[in-house]
Amino acid sequence: MHDSLDELRNAKLNAPVSRRYVLNGILGISAVAAFGPLLAACAKSDSSTEAASGGKLGGELNFIGYSGEDAATVAKDFLTKNGITVKPTFIASPDEPLTKFKTGGRGQLDIISDNKDFQRSLLAAGEELYQALDLSRIPNAAGLFPAFASAEWLTKDGNVYGVPLIWGDEPCVYNPAKWDGVPAKYTDFADKKFKGELVMVDDAVANTWLWAKSMGIADPSRMTQKQIDATIKEMLKTKPNVVTFSASLGDQADVLVRGDASIAIGGWAYQIVLAEKKGVTLKSASPATDGTFYWSDAYGIAVDAPNIDNAYAFINYMMSPEANAAIATELGSGATISAAVDKLDANTKGLYDYSIVAQPGGGVLGSQVVTPPINDDGDIVGMPKWVKAWEAFKLG
Asked: 171-292+376-395 architecture in CATH?
């Protein structure tokens, strides 16, 4: 396991690319202005949250996860009131909490935020990282949408190991002044009419998975080396049409706003809102045949967490409808608490199809697996080889 994790880290994997960096980027959107009223409502719910979660609060709370999910702004009043100081460590790839845990971090991690596919793979493999949660200490989790209340990727042997915070998808985002929509398949982007019009994120997993799905591979998350090679060969047909590979979804939004490209592949619905604030009209759509992929990030508590009372209280606070709506607004994502949806502004509320998460199991959100195995599994290649193939694609 360690060799594969070292190889993965050394490959500087940036996938799944975080949706959470945008509000601090070049677009300069003021997150506080966007959800100020929600913050006031959050402050009023502090007392019930503290009492319900139990334990003595105060001191440190060690957070490791995606930038923004530490909720520094959303939870500011709660943290200040209870004398809690968050010490965040931000990640770019989903393997990093496990790597830190196994390399001296045990007993130093409290809250982990990570994506569903990586959490699913850890539980399936029996890897030690997350502890089973006492849901009686997170009463606000009772408000989760059915898809998240019964999230099979966070449960094992009757125990629950995570509480979903946000969710979403990654469609194509395009300029309607130039295009009526997007083609039916991702492989269709190889058409010469798209030359100089495409921007892709530097994401080894998402793009490879999308093209493999477009090629008809039954489970794009579990491919042989031969299938990976065939996928990269097909992707190379589109590469001449790509203007740039952006470092993040925020950078990708900037490329669209500047007009340097007119279609973002594997983009983010919230880019439409950000562009509108700059006077640019964008729309989103997914190829009709291929569709898109879905993601969800959840809070978990690490084994041997040193500040477990703070961890439970923080998670319970973030599951309040007000806080969940505020973090969804800040991060341009879907809310996981059903009562939070009506607290969203019209733009944020309209970004995602909540009928998906209203059904137990979450439909495609629950069944779809995007991230490949960490290690090779027989003929199925692990994530390091995906990264190697992606790097070859960019150089090809």
From this structure: 3-Layer(aba) Sandwich (3.40)
pLDDT in tens, 203-253: 888 899 999 999 999 999 999 999 999 999 999 999 999 999 998 888 899
* pLDDT computed for residue 33 by the predictor: 46
| pLDDT exceeds cutoff 50 at 117 | yes
| Domain formed by 17-167+296-367, architecture | 3-Layer(aba) Sandwich (3.40)
The sheet with strand 198-201 has its strands ordered as: 242-246, 198-201, 263-265, 172-174, 283-285
Contacts of 122 (CB under 8 A, 6+ apart): 98, 129, 130
Under 8 Å CB-to-CB from 13, ≥6 apart: which residues?
Answer: 92, 93, 95, 204, 205, 383, 387
Query: What's the pTM?
Result: 0.81
Strands in 111-115's sheet, in edge-to-edge order, are 84-90, 59-65, 111-115, 294-301, 163-169, 334-335
